[in-house]
Amino acid sequence: MSKVLIVSSNYYRVISNNLVNGAKDYLKDFPTIEFEHSDVPGCFEIPYIINANNEYYEGFIALGCIIKGETYHFELISNEVTRKIMDLSVNHKKPIGFGILTCENLDQAIQRSDPNHGNKGKEAALACVRLINENKSIKNKLNG
Question: pTM score, two decimals?
Fold first, then answer.
């Protein structure tokens, strides 16, 4: 049994709910994947929760939305969260499905989180599961 933690920013609640539902719906098709969900206030807090829970899970799914405003804040948060999530994945040698939307406006975010097509939460879950399975396959070949 593999344990996965979904960590989502609830700053844009409608968007995050769509992303989380997409990820959960996908994960339910895998009886060997057990998952839990944790909400955080914003995308900036996602890497902290992943790092703090690293030893308890085989993989993570990071979900949220950052929408461009009139200041440089969008670039700072987008770049730093993305970089830190990649660092955590590489340093801890664990997959992190990346489903943090970086959008110009709310309409783009709604489209990319649409539960009926193009849901990036589902895509992030798919990436996480595929990497967990690939890693297990490689380990089995090495030990077999």
Answer: 0.96
Residue 69 buriedness (CB in 10 A; 0-12 / 13-18 / 19+) = exposed
pLDDT in tens, 26-79: 999 999 999 999 999 999 999 999 999 999 999 999 999 999 999 889 999 999
CA distances 139 to 65, 87, 112, 142, Å, are 34, 22, 35, 5
Classified as helix, coil or strand, 32 is coil
Instruction: Sheet containing 96-103: give its strands across.
Output: 33-40, 2-9, 59-67, 96-103
Our answer to whether residue 117 is catalytic in this structure is no
Q: Tell me the three state secondary structure of residue 90.
A: helix
Catalytic residue among 37, 73, 92, 117: 73
CB atoms within 10 A of CB 133: 15
Q: Residue 139: is its pLDDT beyond 90?
A: no
